[in-house]
Request: fold
Amino acid sequence: MTYNRINNLTGWLVFLIATFVYVSTMEPTASYWDCGEFISTSYKLMVPHPPGAPVFLLVGRFFSLFASDPQHVAYCVNLVSALSSSFTVLFLFWSITMIAKKLAKDENGGHSTAQVIAIMGAGVVGSLAYTFSDSAWFSAVEAEVYAMSSFFTAIVFWAILKWEAHSDEAASERWLIFIAYLVGLSIGVHLLNLTAIPALAFVYYFKKYDKINLTGSFVTLIISVLLLGVVMVGIIPGLPTIASKFELFFVNSMGMGFGSGVIAFMALLIGGLAYAIYYSQTTGKKLLNISLLALGFILIGYFSYGVIVIRSQFNPPIDMNDPENVMTFTSYLKREQYGDRPLLKGPNFTAKPQEYKKTSPVYVPGKDAKGKDKYIITDYKTEVVYRSKDEVLFPRMYSNQPGHPEQYRSWMKFSKSHVPTFADNMSFMFTYQMGHMYWRYFLWNFAGRMGDEQDSSWLGPNNWFSLDEHTALYASKARNNFFLLPLIAGMIGFSYLITRDRKNGIIVTMLFLFTGLAIIVYLNQPPTEPRERDYTFAASFYAYSIWIGLAVLFLAETLEKYVLKNKLIAASFASAVLLVVPGIMGSQGWDDHDRSKRYYQVESAKNLLNSCAQNAILFTGGDNDTYPLWYAQEVEGVRTDVRVCNLSLLNTDWYIKQMTDKAYLSDSLPIGLSVEQYRQGTNDYLYLDRETYEQNKNATINLPIFLDLAKRKDKLITRIYDGQPLIFYPSSNFVLPVDTAHVASLGIVPKNLIPAITPKLAFSINDGGMDKRTYVILNMLVNNNWKRPIYFSTTLSPSDYIGMQRYMQLEGMAYRLLPVEIPGASEGWINTDLMLKNMMKFEFTNLDDSTIFYDENYQRFTFNSKSQYFTLANQLMQERRDKEAKEAILYCFNKIKSPAIPYDHLNAYMVGQLFKLGEKDLAYKYAMEIRTYAEGVASYIKADKIKETNKKRTIGITLQVLSQILKEHGYTKESEQIDAFMADANLNRAIQ
Reply:
């Protein structure tokens, strides 16, 4: 059998193994974070958050066509990531064998059977090590863009190695054109793939130039970075920016219709490029011809973004940023809504702004006085200006967002008065940005991981044998111990490659650095993130896996030279021994990467939707609050009569506009504002007139009258500042009058609460002003006049209830706003009949299965569910409905069961409820279960020498509550034992 046939068959065998692993552990439905959004937008080709991923959407849409019913769409779209990852593994295998083939040659340049075995062994070990690496596996089993991005990195790197191998053949440049096309397509997935460009440049340099020196290498590095800049700045946002200038000139200056400038620009771009290619070909300028063809194919791939613009023009239900014209599309690509991060020069977090300088105008399509198309200015982008002495070179500690200064000071151990120096910024970059946010992830993948909590450390030798048989039972499934084997193998492979083949050693190193530490430098991460970001660096771990594979060659040569004296046996033994590396990675990682039985993330969305009355308006907060709801409605068609309104997005004019459109069974929201009254630059913030407020803090404002004045920009509340009319209101106290007879006639208030209908809703806005979303919500309340039910998710922050929580009725996983006020109910009240009916039907599939790993996202969301069951049971007990209270408690205990979802202090409080219900034996049984679990986890934390964590604090609080409850009900001995255990485990300090 020929080498090529062996190489191909072995590669496809590895592909099948990876596919089996990923498909077996793949999530069957939508995961948390962006997955629900990507599945929804793929299924119906809608517009996801900036900068979009049109290639992913198109492939996802294609795969969704194979779904037998809407419930299987998520599985099919998740399959895109699984297969993308499998192909990544395949091309990694072939890349490793191409490099290894150069290292393992006999005297005649051929390959003996032993060498073929060693080469194949290297490919198998390295590619399977990547298969089971933590970050790659995580991305492979959910519908996110990172798996496909890794695929493009893999195939591009493989393609440049193929070009190198065939560069002396005729028409070898087709590989370069192919690479350019792949780079263009990858832009439509994620920009991470572009970081492979420097490695590609070094392959070209080493192949085309015989004399290799430091100067040439440095020039190659500079050119590669410039090429990276050309694509990331010149092409991706640059071309739309130029097109927007054309558009503005053709429409505003020449009086032509919308789109005329874009058409003219595209004609010039395509025509100019076509002529340049023709010129280079007819004049025999080969390098210019290849460069222009490469640019053309990059653009072909990049033009996949046309999908975003075209679909946005149809105004689908999910239309993030509404990029339907060149102005908004340019902003969409630049991710302007997320702001900028300084790279070369900028302020420290201690710097105080000196000026907010207007820069470029914001244009929107409109009409001139004659009714002709014209782009009109609605606002100006602003730039924060700092004093020059407050700015530093290479700022790393720049963010003054809420909480960030405290995080910087905590990490760096600064005093409150300390002003960071350049050295401080460098220290933060090396210790936090590189150390905590890269090397920690790197060691997760190749050394081991301590657990699943945010900021978990890597697992080093001190913790290899810290757990005994008992404490191991309570360890996190995400505690993975690789005994440093992948790390050591990679270091051996790196040394072997760099000494045996310096050129390829440098190429792989460049790939490793530019997909890892270079990204850290570019991202300039803030001091805290909402979740771990290891998936960003998967391509860097891909490069390291090449070195892991090459360790097989080193071991085979070493064994043959010093021990076995037989090449065939040495190659076979080395391959078999180093298969232990991916073997231990797979065995340790399977349980915490297996998501094949998880369903709660979508069920939580359905539970929330089913907490709402017909035709409701539901206010939600962050990504994990909203994206599963979008999935449930858009894909599975669940409760499309409920209109989900995300408060994080309601500050933007494009989202407000979308809320005024009908969607499925939901009518438009009764916002009652024209586009001119809420678009960017208008009513972005309404200000409290503090001087007037201080004179009479008890004054109240009639809300409908105030909103009417604000719409008309009445001079009573309007002041002109810097040419812009701004709204000021004299008091933070508002009153919304209620037509009690009208409300009673609607039948929305339970009969027993009709006497409590209030003639007014009094509330306060205490933030010194109100943002646009609050202004829009208040308009909605007035215009709705109680016709549609209005709900607020229980996962929202208390500040999101805009001071109205005492008028809210809890009905499940959402509060309903009603014009009812019950004395003493400052946090609202419970409709026990309705809440009981809703919550006893909620779904919690497999949350009682201890074999399934649920990370802290699930624990956080199930905590909210448990909280509502506890609240419901408490109210039922107050109403002397003890039987139903017990049913609610047991429903929670049976459906949300430890250790799948760990016991916490809410479970302990429920034990107290069971004691009060007279269920002494049952309460004691659960109390001992909670005690056993909590003490076991505490023992594990102590044995593993884990520092202060949320888990440790939660366990401490749980035991403290349990001790108090047992003591209250006569179990003094057990209470004292728990107290003694807490003291011994040092838990009292953790809960202070």
